[in-house]
Design a protein that fits this description.
This protein is mainly β and 404 residues long. It has one domain: TolB, C-terminal domain (Neuraminidase, 6 Propeller). It contains three helices and 28 strands. The strands form seven sheets. A five-stranded antiparallel sheet has the order 1-21-18-17-16, with no helix packed on it. Strands 3, 4, 5, 6 and 7 form a five-stranded antiparallel sheet that branches. The chain starts with a helix and ends with a strand. The relative contact order is 0.18.
Length: 404
Amino acid sequence: MATLKTLLSALMLALVLSACSSSSPSAPEPGATSPPDEGPATSNARPGPSLDTIGIELLEVAAGFEQPLYATHAGDASGRLFVVEQTGAVRIVSGGRVQTEPFLDLSERVVVGSEQGLLGLAFHPSYEDNGRLFVNYTDLNGDTVVAEFAGAGGRADSSSERVLLTIEQPFPNHNGGALAFGPDGFLYIATGDGGSGGDPMGNGQSIGTLLGKLLRIDVNAASSDLSYGIPGDNPFVGRAGARPEIWAYGLRNPWRFSFDEATEELWIGDVGQSGLEEIDHSGGGRGVNFGWNVMEGNTCYEPPTGCDRSELQLPVAQYSHDLGCSVTGGYVYRGHTQRALRGVYLFSDYCSGTIWGLDAAQPGAGAVRLLESGRAVSSFGVDETGELYLTDLGSGTLFRIVSK
């Protein structure tokens, strides 16, 4: 059973997310969102028949977590799952049981509240050989820290921290926080626009700041002034006034991104402002402008009409706040046991618990509601075999997603 502290924290997060999404006076354009009884709006036709026939359910794997925000694996053939707790610990699930001792405990270095805490974890692609792992957390000053730790003896050494990147946060919300190694071996880092409402500092569209971006760095290299390397094909390398770490921009609060294992395409769930939640998709992603704060979803944000969309990558799916309040980005299922789900991108809403599916090969064909879970879906995750999981912040539970 969830503790009172966990339930109160979950309620606080829901209220903050909802509040920060409604702080702007701008209203969506008429007809830009789906009616409450439909799925997220997309650009083209009705959903394909295969999605219409899919049903899913959640099977409990383990419980008792404190504010779980993410689940992943180490790629070391151990079969273990690693669950990130917002309060600062990473816990190991092995054989369906949660190990007593945390894999990593950063609780004394992490500030926790609303959208702050230990937010992301990524294991180096060669973790089995080099023991390197990376985390994203908000420190005691409320700033974003991306740091490397060393794994040893089945645990991570908390004293081995090597800070790669610190980003000053002007407000306590919109921290992003997800980390993932791309198919190219580089580390990708999702950052929010710095917080408040409406992006008052213009960070989303500025290529002179790391806020509101998807960053791409080389953790296997370093330079004289950086503890990491800059890939030479990053889009703004060598441009005056631009941060060379930027891979894509125009993001508000990217809450979970992933790469399709089969196609290497990028998927992002970006939390909206006054009325729209969105799913962004890009084949390459290099230098892509996802629109915030020119756009909210496929709607002009400010002014509400007449914005220039010509250089923007508009979302492949969006839904209104009649259907939720905070999108949780997911994964394209590429496992082998749930054949009906292969090639389906699953995503959810933190507040409503609705889980939708998109045909990854034809995302414009429409999203289908697959389950009203009743869960506070804080994240999805995959194991070594590609099986799909989700974390429920409200109950502190890890679930596996299966078709039925």
